[in-house]
From TrEMBL:
This is Ig-like domain-containing protein. Transmembrane segments: none annotated. GO terms for biological process: adenylate cyclase-activating G protein-coupled receptor signaling pathway. The lineage of its organism: Eukaryota, Metazoa, Ecdysozoa, Arthropoda, Hexapoda. Pfam families: Ig_3. SUPFAM superfamilies: Immunoglobulin. It comes from Anopheles christyi. Gene3D superfamilies: Immunoglobulins (2.60.40.10).
Length: 173
C-alpha cells in the first residue's frame, strides 16, 4: 500500500500491513512536499490500514513523523510479491513436434515483470530460431497474473530446466 502525505519523515518507511518501520537518517520536509510510505499486504487488511490512517491523522503523527495541519492520507494497495506456481500443460514426457506451454502464476504489483530462463539462460523468443512465444494474461479473480511460455513444435533443443523469474524493481523471485 502506498501512503502519500505532507509530513516531516524520520526516513524511508517500509514494512507490513499495519505497522511501519522507519530506517535511515531524519529528513526535514517543507510544507506542501510529498512523502511516500509504501506497504504491501493482502486486500483483507485494507480496512485495518484505513483505520490506522484515520487514527494517525487524528493524532497528527505517524510514529515520530509530524503531519502538517490539514494533511490527508491516501493509499494504494499492492499485495506482496509471491510466486504461486510454475506448471507445464502436459503430463509425462513431451513428444517431439508437439506444443507445450509453461505457466508462471504470481501475485503482486501490476508493475511486476516475468522473465523465462532455460538452464539458467534468458529465453529470448524474438531471437529464437524456433517458433516460441510469450504472453501475459490479464489479472484473474484471485489477483494472480499468469505469464505463458509456449513452444509450438518441441524438439531435443527444448530439453532442459525452465525457470520463471518474477520481479518488481530490485525484488526478484
Amino acid at each position: 500500500m502506498t501512503w502519500k502525505t505532507n509530513a516531516i519523515p524520520a526516513g524511508a518507511v517500509n514494512g507490513g500491513t499495519t505497522a511501519a518501520k522507519a530506517t535511515g537518517p531524519a529528513v526535514a520536509v517543507a510544507g506542501g512536499s510529498e512523502v511516500m510510505f509504501q506497504f504491501f499486504g493482502p486486500k483483507i487488511d485494507s480496512s485495518r490500514v484505513r483505520e490506522a490512517m484515520e487514527k494517525m491523522t487524528e493524532r497528527g503523527r505517524i510514529g515520530n513523523v509530524s503531519l502538517v495541519s490539514g494533511t490527508k492520507l491516501s493509499f494504494r494497495q499492492d499485495v506482496g510479491l509471491m510466486l504461486q506456481s510454475v506448471v507445464i500443460n502436459q503430463k509425462g514426457p513431451i513428444r517431439e513436434n508437439t506444443e507445450f506451454i509453461l505457466s508462471c502464476v504470481a501475485q503482486g504489483s501490476s508493475t511486476m515483470s516475468f522473465r523465462w530462463y532455460k538452464n539458467g539462460y534468458f529465453v529470448n523468443v524474438t531471437k529464437a530460431t524456433r517458433n516460441m512465444w510469450t504472453r501475459l494474461l490479464p489479472l484473474d479473480s484471485k489477483d494472480h497474473y499468469t505469464a505463458l511460455l509456449g513452444i509450438n513444435r518441441a524438439n531435443r533443443l527444448d530439453e532442459g530446466i525452465y525457470t520463471c523469474q518474477v520481479s518488481v524493481g530490485e525484488h526478484k523471485l
